[in-house]
Amino acid sequence: MGAAYSQDLRDRVLAARDRGMKTKAVTLNILLSFAQFEREIIGERIRDKKQATARQGKYVGGGSILGLDVVDRRYVVNREEAKLVRDIFDRFEKLESCRKVAVALNAEGYYTKKQPMNKSGKQRGGKPWRQRSVYEVLINRRYIGQIVHKGKAYPGEHEAIVPTEQFERVQKQLSANKTYTHKHQVKRFVLLRRMIRCGHCGSRVQPTWTRRHGREYRYYSCTRKVKEGYGQCPLPNLPAGEIETAVVDQLRTLLRHPDVIARTYREIGKAGGAGPDAATLAKLDELRMRREQTQKSIRAVLNASDADEGFMAGELKRLSAELKSLDKTIGDLEAKATHGAPVELDRVGEALRAIDPIWDVLFPEEQRRIAQLLVEEITVSTSGIDIRFRTNGIEQIAEELQPIEERAHA
Q1: 296 and 389, same structural domain?
Q2: Which long-range contacts (CB under 8 A, 24 or more apart) does 69-77 make?
Q3: For residue range 107-143, what is the model confidence (pLDDT) as tens digits?
Q4: How many CB atoms are located within 10 Å of the residue 122 CB?
Q5: Of 301, 325, 340, which residue sits at a domain end?
Q6: In contact, 248 and 359? CB cutoff 8 Å
Q7: Handedness of CA 391, 393, 398, 401 (dihedral sign)
Q8: Cα(309)–Cα(312) distance, rounded to whole angstroms?
């Protein structure tokens, strides 16, 4: 009686505890839902408040900029810096180039506006002018007394530094200058894009182009010259057609040279290892010996004339199944061993020499693919061109050239 009562009491306690845990879980989910709803309401109110503040033309956040300081959450014109802002707009209307304006400002000893140190103690601003920093000044609508929020401009309560008419003229000139896009770069410079580096300053050599008298001229130019001025690097603008032809000719010459083929083969052998291990080779030898013994046993059973026919049939069936299993195991091990073996020297030479006759029939993207597989980096200087080759792309070229050769002969 006492044991039954104790068991019943225990069951009631456990059931009450389960109900309590479920009630707590439901209550917690309700509280979490209310908390999420409250966060969304707070965020929406903050966004609406900022939008209303921008419509009123008041300060909506952000640090000070050149010519405008933040005082008591209001933009206040800095008279000394405002002169430099007007000077930048005037210079651009004369020079029509952000890069030339940056070079002129740096030559006269001007620097970007110093900002307060960030939390890590790093000083921001106070650096030489660059093409991008000049561009950011020229497109900032706060200089004509406007506040920009979420892509929309509203009349601000602070004083304008630059006349609106001059600002709009500058925007039209900037739009006219905007010809460089990634899409145009891919279309015009497929072969050596992002593969050339300057041998003097170490910067990347980027593609550029110009139009004159209805013709388009393609160049490769040092990035440092483009951003900081043409006097910052001695590397001249490189005609795209000439440098691409020079690189391709050097590729063709080097790929036919026996020393290059031999060196590439040695590097592939080092990277790919020495082929199958000793355990795999020993296993193969053992399996081959067992297969040979099984074949001898089959011939012996077939030559026996006085044995029972039922016994001979069962024995032949067993030996044939064993031979089939051995053939399959040996084939799998041989495929594995062949896969891990290094590339043969003849195959390396054929793959390298096959590029030359079919180069002209390749699509531009296929030419770029081969160049990327073979060339790690191209360094250009006033003294010449230095090409550093990759050694891990030969095997892929050998595989990819087969369908290309078939198409070239079609």
Answers
A1: no
A2: 74/157, 74/158, 75/142, 75/156, 75/157, 75/158, 76/158, 77/158, 77/159, 77/161
A3: 888 888 888 777 777 778 888 888 888 999 999 988 9
A4: 7
A5: 340
A6: yes
A7: negative
A8: 5
Structure tokens at 364: 């531009």
**DSSP structure string for 44-88:** HHHHHHHHHHHHTT---S---BTTEEESSSSEEE-HHHHHHHHHH
Q: Give the C-alpha separation, 336 to 330, whole Å.
A: 10
Residue whose C-alpha is closest to residue 350's, from 285, 283, 308, 402: 402
Q: Which token pair is 41?
A: 């309401």
Confidence category of residue 100, pLDDT binned at 50, 70, 90: confident
Q: Which residues contact 400 (CB under 8 A, 6 or more apart)?
A: 369, 370
For 109, phi then psi, to 5°, come to 85, 20
Looking at the 3D structure of the chain, how many domains does it have? 3
Report the chain's mean pLDDT, rounded to a whole number. Answer: 76
The residue count for the chain: 410
185 and 240 both lie in a single domain? yes
Q: How many helices (H) and strands (E) does the chain have?
A: 15, 10
